[in-house]
Amino acid sequence: MDSAEAKTIRAARLDSNACILKKDVAGVAKYWLSEFVQIAGDGSHTAGKAQIIKDWKYMFSKSSPVFERLPDAIRISESGDLAWEQGTWNYKTAPYHGNYAAMWRKVNGSWFTQSELYVSLD
Question: N or C of the chain: less Cβ packing under 10 Å?
Answer without folding.
Answer: N
